[in-house]
Amino acid sequence: MIEASAPGGIAPHVRPQIESNPYRGTASNSYSMKTLESGARIPPAAGDAAAPILSLQSVTKDHNTETEPVRALSNVSLAVEAGRFVALVGRSGCGKSTLLHLAGAMDFPTSGHVILDGIATDSLNETGLTHLRREKVGFIFQSFQLLHTLSVAENVELPLLLAGNARPRRQALERLAAVGLADLSDRMPHQLSGGQMQRVAIARALVHSPRILLADEPTGNLDSTTGNAILELLRRISLEQQTTILMATHSAEFSSFVDAVVRMRDGRIEGVLRC
Ligand SMILES: Nc1ncnc2c1ncn2[C@@H]1O[C@H](COP(=O)(O)OP(=O)(O)O)[C@@H](O)[C@H]1O
Ligand SMILES: [Mg+2]
After folding, report:
1. pTM for this entry
2. Nearest ligand, CA 88
3. Is 184 helix (H, G, I), strand (E, B) or coil?
4. For ligand 1, what atom is nearest to the CA of residue 248?
């Protein structure tokens, strides 16, 4: 399930404006887009727990600058159930990356709360935050962010090493096989294509089996065919592993892959569409 509220309230009391799908007709497979019913609810997948894996409760975020604070999110409320694949869309500057950083406890609201798997991110000390991020969150980026002095396998096993796992190689190789890169584990990142680099980043983000994968424009540096293959991979991961995925994107190609689209504008949620 996903719920979202329009500015000024917390779901489900306030209903967001639900609009018709601007991307209708672009879907290339059977996940056709439907306008969400009033109330912005998407039923959870079979077997989901009732509690949302992620909820933002009346979140406002101001970024400090040398002059005056910049308001990036304005009273945003959103709840995402486990196992959903959700796209966040909207123009550059509308607050997508800020929302993802708050969702991953990399940053904190100016007011309101972010609850990740039942834990308020603003309730933890540094040690608690480190554990929360390590155990529950995976992040992938437009620019892949691989460590170029490490091999593919070393990149993927790094989160496990940092978490104290002394023999992470087998798990890393399993993840690489799951993203179709079993044969490339000994390569260095510069020996890979962009699509292969993003697959390595996905394997790394998932190697510790996080509850939620946060993806910031993961296809932004890829051509559309390669980007679609990455979206297909994310779709498969969310279905097979019940990993919740929240993905910021500019792309209109996404609608055929995701369960819901949250459309943002000027730091607010404008509407939610079920796909
Ligand atoms: N670290 C920061 N310091 C100051 N302003 C920021 C910072 N990060 C983002 N912003 C501002 O917050 C707003 C939302 O940015 P962002 O979340 O990056 O949007 P998007 O990812 O949708 O492009 C923009 O006005 C941006 O300039
Ligand atoms: Mg961004």
Report:
1. 0.85
2. 1
3. helix
4. 21
Asked if residue 12 has a cis previous peptide bond (ω within 30° of 0), the answer is: yes
Give the integer Cα–Cα distance in Å for 36 and 19: 8
Q: Amino acid letter at 183?
A: D
User: Ligand 1 atom closest to Cα of 100?
Assistant: 17
> What does the block give as tokens for 263?
């459309």
Q: How far is it, in rounded angstroms, from Cα 267 to Cα 148? A: 35
DSSP element (H, E) containing 103: helix 96-103
Please name the residue ranges forming H helices in 104-223: 126-136, 152-162, 169-178, 194-206
pLDDT grade, residue 2 (50/70/90)?
A: low
For the chain, domains (ranges, CATH) are 2-150+193-274 (3.40.50.300)
Task: Give the DSSP H or E segment for 241.
Answer: helix 224-241
Task: Write out pLDDT tens, residues 214-258.
Answer: 999 999 999 989 999 999 999 999 999 989 999 999 766 677 899
Which amino acid belongs to residue 153? A
Distance (angstroms) between ligand 2 centre and the Cα of 91 equals: 9
CA of 90 to the centre of ligand 1 (A): 13
Ligand 1 centroid, distance to 161 Cα (angstroms)? 32
Closest CA to 258 of 240, 241, 236, 227: 236
Rounded CA separation 27/35 (Å): 14
Tens digit of each residue's pLDDT (9 = 90 or more) over 157-202: 999 999 899 999 999 999 999 999 999 999 999 999 999 999 999 9
